[in-house]
Amino acid sequence: MTISGIAGVARAPFLLLPVALVAAGTGAAARAGGADLVSALIALVGLAGLHAAVNALNEWSDHRRGIDFETERTPFSGGSGTLPAGRLSPCGALVVAGAGFSLGLAAGAYFLVRIGWPMVPIVAFGAFSVLAYTDFLARIGVGELFAGLGLGALPVIGTALVQAGRIPPEAWIGAFPACAMTFNLLLLNEFPDEAADRRGGRRNLVLLLGRRGAALVYAGAALSVPACLGAGVAFGLLPLPALAAAAPTLLLVPALRWAFTRPAEPVPLPALGANVAWNLLTNVTFGLALGTL
Question: What is the pTM assigned to this prediction?
Answer without folding.
Answer: 0.92
